[in-house]
Design brief:
- The protein is α+β, with helices and mostly antiparallel strands.
- It is 19% helix and 37% strand.
- It has a six-stranded antiparallel barrel with strand order 1-2-3-6-5-4. Strands 8-9-10-13-12-11 form a six-stranded antiparallel β-barrel. Strands 15, 16, 19, 20, 21 and 22 form a six-stranded antiparallel β-sheet that branches.
- The longest helix is centred in the first third of the chain and has 22 residues.
Amino acid sequence: MQHYSSLNPKLVKWIRLLIILICVWLVADFLGLKPLRFLRPRVEMRPVTQATGDLGADEKANIEIFEKVSPSVTYITNKRFQRDLFSFNVMEIPQGTGSGFLWDDKGHIVTNFHVIYQADEVEVRMQDGKSYDADLVGADPDHDLAVLRINALNLNIPPLMIGSSKDLRVGQKVVAIGNPFGLDSTLTTGVISALGRTIQSMTKRYIHDVIQTDAAINPGNSGGPLLDSFGRLIGINTAIISPTGVYSGVGFAVPVDTVNRIVTKLINYGKVGRPGLGVSLIPDNIMARLGMEGVGILEVHRGSSAEEAGLKEVKRLRDGQIEIGDVITGCDGSPIKKSSDLIKILDRHEVGDEVELTILREGRKKLIRIILQIVG
């Protein structure tokens, strides 16, 4: 008995072909291939649209500043030595990075003190990729400044131009160049948001006349230059205010007038001879508790300028009572309400300068001239 298929052989052939195509499609889709791509017409690269004009003046200025200044900006790596617990081999461990810049043609590099803090070795890398081991020339933690030195032979890089911070204006354009998050030679722009700010250094001492800017400053920008529209140094990027630790629009830079004065001393002497009176001061909170305005003199150091000028310190009377000595209420004509006011004025002077103090002694105002001595 013969059996005949009820399906048309041609139909069976097409069904098999369709099943094969579906299987191929599913496999291609599973492998991430797009079968229809091969059926689409091929396209060519889009033509470049030519610019109808030139770059703006502001853009040209930024480019000129970057090309002129960036070769002088350095990438600084702070390294510490650590001994392996098992092999006892000593290893170099990078513990932080920051920025710096070439100060002069003798290979001096200026940066923040906190960038090289606790470093056993500091590496300086230039924009051209060359790296140098740097020696510490001197540091001033109170102003968060440090000077390094590298071998300047055949460096052939011009140092930064120095500007002035005394004539800056709020709203003035600024440019920051540094290495945020390790991204070297990064340029950001902004304006001066405020002047005369006060921030604390690592030593808790106040840094005065600080520049506030909205130029993007992030970890790694520390120690890098803040520049004006002429490409001159006007400050060193130092700190930010941010709840997350990254850019929030509020950055601070140590003013160049302070930098110029401190760096010169560090290069010449390796340290900063801070001008002072030769006294210890009554803490501000104690003066506030006593209801007194000004800076009280707690102790006059023996052989000091203060002793020579006849300043009076706190005394303990025979009955156990405390007698307040001189209270400084002014210096060079400026009012003194707390210790930071006095320090701010003294920091503008040099050792050997003469200043005029206004003091309150036994309820009477008195003027005393005193020569500043080296302290700290």
